[in-house]
Amino acid sequence: MSKGSKPKRINKRDYCRVLATETLPYETPIIFSNEGLYNNVLRSQRATGITRVLIDGIITGESAPKFSPTNPHSYKIRKNALEFRRLALVHPISQWRIKAFYEKYENLILHFCSLSPASIRAPNKVAATFYTKSSWENINQYKNGSVAQTETDRFTKYSPSFFAYRGHDRLYKFFDSRDFLELEKAYGFLWTLDVSKCFDSIYTHCMSWAVKDKEFTKTHVDIDSTFGQAFDSVMRNANHNETNGIVIGPEVSRIFAEIIFQAVDRRAFLRLSQSYKLIFGTHYQVRRYVDDVFIFARNEADARTIYECYSDTLTMFNLHTNTAKSLRLARPFFTKKSRITRDVSNRANEFFDKFLEDVDDASRLIPKKIYYQWRLTRSFLDIVKSVCSYNDVSYDDVSSYLISTFTERVKKLANTNLATSDEETVLNYRDSSLVLLDVLFFLYSVAPSVSSSYKLATSIIVLIRFAEKNLGVHKETVKQRIFDLANSFLSRENEGGRAAIEGFTWLEASNVLLAVRELGPNYLLPEETVKSLFENTGKFSYFDIVCGLFYVRKDPAYRTLRRGLVKAADARLRNLTDIFVNSEKAHLFLDMITCPYIYHTQRRRWIEGFYAQMKLDAPTPAELADFIAQAATRYWFVNWTEVDLLNSLEKKELKRAY
Question: Are 509 and 517 spatial neighbours (Cβ–Cβ below 8 Å)?
C-alpha cells in the first residue's frame, strides 16, 4: 500500500466487475478497456432497441444462433529484443461466461487457491477495497475527470482485480521482503525453477486432475457439473475449444494456472516427505509466484532432490522445466539483475540530486538552475552505458526500471502551481522538463516495451498539461520538444520497429502516438508516418484500426488514411456470419458502430447487416437515428469522445495485478 493511499470501497456483489478486471490482457492500447462494456451491461436491464439486440446477441449470447466455442483475437507483442509474447482478446460472449463462472464458483476458487503454503500470489477473498497510488493523487489537477466517482458503486470497475490477494503483487517485492531475508538466514542455497511455455502448455483437463483425484476424474468424464470440469469448459470455450494451452493475458488464466500449480506444490511436498524424509518448512522451503518457483535448501544435495522431484511432479500435469533458465545460488542471494538495478538506482538518484530538490515529504520536486542541459543529459546517459557495458547487459535490462523512476519524478515535478512564480523559476521548470524528456525518450528508443509505453505516455501527457497550465509562453518549447522527440522515434521505428511476424501489434509505437495526440491540432504527424505505424503488408488489425481512427479523427490532413482505415473495417464487417464466435470481428463491430469519425450511412449499413444475421427485421430509421445520436455516450471498448488518457493510464496501472 502506498503511503498516503486512501481505501476505496467496492460493491462485492457486483459480479459485472469481473468483466473489468479478469478477462482482458494488461497489454492493450491506452484507449482500450472494458469500461464501456461494463457500463452497458449495468444498464442492460433498461436497454431497449438496438442496444438490447447487441447485448443479447454479442455479449450474453442469449439470442445468438447457438452455443459455440469462441475464437479469441490473438496478437503478439515484444517480450524483449528477440522474443515475443502471444496474447489473447477473448470474445465478449466468453467473457460473459467467465463472469457467470465467478458468480457461481467464487468460494471454490478461493478454496482451491488456499491449499499451498508455497504460493506468494493467490486470491484469498473477494476484494472489498482498493487503494489509489499517492503519486497519482499528486497530479489530480491535470486530470479532466476523476479516476473514481463519488458514488460507492462507481469504484467497482477500477479495482485491480475481483479478488484480494495474499502475498506480493510484484515479484520484486518478494526479493525486498523480510520473508526473503529470513529464508536467506535459514537456508544457504537457492535454486530457481522455470516452467517452459507455461500457459501454452497447460492441458485444460488438468484442472479436474488438480481439484480431484486423477483416476476418479477419468472414470467420471460425463460429470460436467463439477468445479474442475466447469472451469475447464469455460477456458476451452474461450479458446476455440482447444485443450492444449489456455488464453494468455487475462487474470482468469493466471487463476486457472494457480490452482493447477497449487496441486503440483502439494503433491511434490508429499512425495518429498514420504520418499526422501524432507519436510517442508524444516529441511527446505519453496516460494512460488504463479509459475516462478524458488527452492531454498540447506545443502546442494537437498536442493537438487527438491528440484528434480518438483520437475517430475510437473510432468504429471503435462508441464516441463526449462533447465536453461534455472539459477543456482549460494549465499549471498544477490543476482546479477539485482546488482545492476541497485547500481542504476543509485546513479539515477545522484543524477536527480544535481537538478531536483525534494520538498513536502518528497511529494514535490523543485528544480535547480541548469546551466548546460545537454551536458547534464549526456552525463547520465554515459553512466547508463557504462553500467550496461561493465555488466555485459543490454539496455533492456535497465530501461524499464529507469523509465518508471523518471516518470515518478515527472509527477512530482508537475505537482505545483506556478501562477505567482517569477520568470527564473518558470525557466528552471522548463529546463528540468526538457532534460527529463530527453532521457526518457532515449531510454525508450533503445529498448521500447509495452509496459514502458504506459509510463512514457504518462510523462508526455503530464508535461503537456503542466506546460499549458504553468509555463506561459515557454509551453511551446516543451510541446515542440515532445513533438520532435516523438516524431524522431516514430519515424525511426518505421524503418525496423515492426516485427516481421504474423499478428504483431505495435503497441510500443501506437501508445506513444496516442499520447502525443494530446499536443493538439498544431502538432500533427505526417500522414505517411502515421499510416506506416499501423499498416502491415497492406492489412490493418483491430487495434490498428481503432488507434488509427482515434488519432486521425476528422482532421482533413488524414483524409486518405481515414478512408483506408474505414475501408479495412468495412472489408471485415461485410460478412458477419461468424461475429458470434470471432472476437476480433465482435470488438471491431461494436467500436465501429459507435465511432463518430465514420459516416452515419456506413454505420447504419453495419447495424442492418447484424440484424440480418440475427434474422430480425431491420431497425426503423428512427431507431437507427436514436442509436447513432446516443452512440458517443454508449461506447463499448474505445471511448471516442470523452476519454481522458491520463485517467486511462491510472486505471491501467491500478489494474496491473501481475
Answer: no
Return d(Cα 400, Cα 315) in angstroms, integer: 34
**Cell numbers standing for residue 144:** 479532466
Whole-angstrom Cα distance, residue 49 to residue 625? 11
Cis? peptide before 332, omega within 30° of 0 = yes
161-184 pLDDT per residue, tens: 889 899 888 888 899 899 999 999
Is the CA virtual torsion 277, 283, 289, 293 positive or negative? negative
Q: Is the pLDDT of residue 222 over 60?
A: no
Predicted local confidence at residue 6, as pLDDT:
59
Statement: residue 79 has pLDDT above 50? yes
What secondary structure, in 3-state letters, does 206-231 show?
HHHHHHCCHHHHHCCCCCCCCHHHHH
pLDDT (tens digit per residue) in 275-293: 999 999 999 999 999 999 9
Give the residue carrying C-alpha cell 515475443: 84
Q: Where would I find the H helices in 193-292?
A: 198-201, 206-211, 214-218, 227-237, 251-276
Cell of 23: 478477462
What would the grid cell of residue 41 be? 451491461
Q: 319, 327, 263, 329: which is closest to 118 by C-alpha?
A: 263
Is the separation of the CB atoms in 153 and 11 below 8 Å? Answer: yes
Q: Are 482 and 467 in contact (CB under 8 A)?
A: no
What's the Cα-to-Cα distance from 62 to each of 53, 56, 97, 587, 637, rounded to whole Å?
10, 5, 11, 18, 21
**Each residue of 431-473: pLDDT tens digit?**
999 999 999 999 999 999 999 999 999 999 999 999 999 999 9
The residues with which 445 forms a beta bridge, in sequence order, are none
Q: Give the chain's count of helices (H) and strands (E).
A: 27, 12
Is 66 within 8 Å of 629 (Cβ atoms)?
A: no
Closest CA to 130 of 166, 155, 102, 107: 155
E strand or H helix at 129: strand 129-131
Residue 200 burial (C-beta neighbours within 10 Å; 0-12, 13-18, 19+): exposed
